[in-house]
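Revision sheet: structure tokens.
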Amino acid sequence: MSTEFLLPVRVYIEDTDAGGIVYYVNYLKYFERCRTELMRALGTERAAISESGWMFVVSKLEVSYRQPAHLDDELQATASITAVGGATIGLFQSVRRGETVLVEGDVQIACVDCETGRPRRLPHLLRRQADASLSAKGDTA
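Predicted:
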């Protein structure tokens, strides 16, 4: 698997303000879609809420907005794993138009128990796949 996951995104009218510029919070939706598809690529069938009683929540987020996207732009949302902990996965995410970075950020997701909301260790297979993706990048956790 590639160390950077790419998801094509088209900007629709519903994503924009009255001036045709993407409303800032919608970049977080692009991040979310990309993370979800990355988790699927790592072998997690239901990437947001597992039938095994766990789910992912965003536990940290730091975002930098560089340039706006506009109505009908073709963008790429990206995600790459930067750290793997016992119950967390760190990612670097971006939204780009071609080679131009529009928005980028560091995101940490935490695996929590659906009933209690308390942290829960990452499922073994997912942990192994996330570690492999991180190792392919040459980083250490």
